[in-house]
Amino acid sequence: MASAFLKFSAIILFLGINAGLAVDQPVTEVCLGCLCQAVSGCKQGLQCDGDACGLFRITWAYWADAGKPTIDGSSPEAPGAYPTCTNDPGCAARTVQLYMNRFAQDCNGDGQIDCYDYAAIHKLGGYGCKADLPFKFHNTFNQCLAYVASYQG
């Protein structure tokens, strides 16, 4: 888990600096990394499989709800715009940020909007985030956050 998370964090940091993630970024790099780990194991090179694409397993509806972001300002209506973005780690991360900007809410009722809420929104959707997370996703996500916390002191 550690190596996949660290690779993903390095990719996102590099792409964020060099591609200019010019959106509000409510989801921290750590949270993005753990979302990636819980959803896909952060396996580089993941493409579309069924109705979900990329490291974050983003569906077309999720991408559309995020505003149909694209790479280098290309048209969201261009053929292949959805898989091109969601299979690219930087564009996929920007898609998650945009989705969270739209749907941010306190899903677990603890009075704050944080990484746990973003995990629920990502996995269950902006309108279903108060439901229980699938065990495997929840467990992997929490293990990732605990792992990172153990190295942050």
UniProtKB/TrEMBL annotation:
| Signal peptide range in chain numbering | 1-22
Name the CDD domains for this protein.
lyz_i
Show the coiled coil region(s): none
Q: Name one GO biological process term.
A: killing of cells of another organism
Recorded hits in Pfam families, A to Z, give: Destabilase (PF05497)
Instruction: Give the domain of life.
Output: Eukaryota
GO molecular function annotation: lysozyme activity
Disulfide topology: C31-C115, C36-C42, C85-C91
Q: Read off the Gene3D superfamilies from this record.
A: 1.10.530.10
Reactions listed under catalytic activity = Hydrolysis of (1->4)-beta-linkages between N-acetylmuramic acid and N-acetyl-D-glucosamine residues in a peptidoglycan and between N-acetyl-D-glucosamine residues in chitodextrins
Task: Give the enzyme's main class according to its UniProt record, as a single word.
Answer: hydrolase
Keyword terms, alphabetized: Antimicrobial, Bacteriolytic enzyme, Disulfide bond, Glycosidase, Hydrolase, Signal
Stated EC number for the protein is 3.2.1.17
Protein name, as recorded? lysozyme
Source organism:
Papilio polytes
